[in-house]
Amino acid sequence: MQELSEVGLNQAARLSECLESGLGFMGESARRSTLWHLQKNFGIKSEDFADHPDKLMEGLRRIFGRGTPLIERRLIAKVCSDFKINAIDVKDLKMAVNKARRTK
Questions:
Q1: How far apart are CA 54 and CA 84, in angstroms?
Q2: Closest CA to 51 of 2, 3, 98
Q3: Considering only CA atoms, which of 104, 77, 71, 103 is closest in space to residue 90?
Q4: Which fold has domain 4-101?
């Protein structure tokens, strides 16, 4: 049986992978470029997305400006889909991540 902390780590890794792949709607080269800019300019690594969704969103705001709400909606939809969460009550990415953490 897995220990609780190991389960939490697996959930965080799953969430981070989900968020990273969620950026793929822009196309592979735009996704890679975005990941590079987030890490290089804002110190946000993709493996830390689940632990710091606010930092992720701030980095995306600084890169994409007014286009960020579209990206956030796409990321929320990806998290809700992958983790079987009802998206109706989800107001922002942080809320989606928190709900996903509570799923099994």
A1: 22
A2: 98
A3: 77
A4: 1.10.1200
pLDDT band at 8 (very low <50, low <70, confident <90, very high): low
**pLDDT > 90? residue 6:** no
DSSP 12-81: HHHHHHHHHHHGGGG-HHHHHHHHHHHHHHH---GGGTTT-HHHHHHHHHHHHGGGHHHHHHHHHHHHHH
Local structure of residue 94 (DSSP, 8 states)? H
pLDDT of 5 > 90? The answer is no
What three-state secondary structure class fits 34?
A: helix
| Domain edges within the chain | 4-101
Q: CA 65 to CA 60: how far, in whole Å? A: 7
Q: Which two tokens stand for residue 52?
A: 């710091």
Supply the pLDDT for residue 22: 95
Q: Tokens 């809700």 appear where?
A: 80
Mean pLDDT score, 12-29: 94
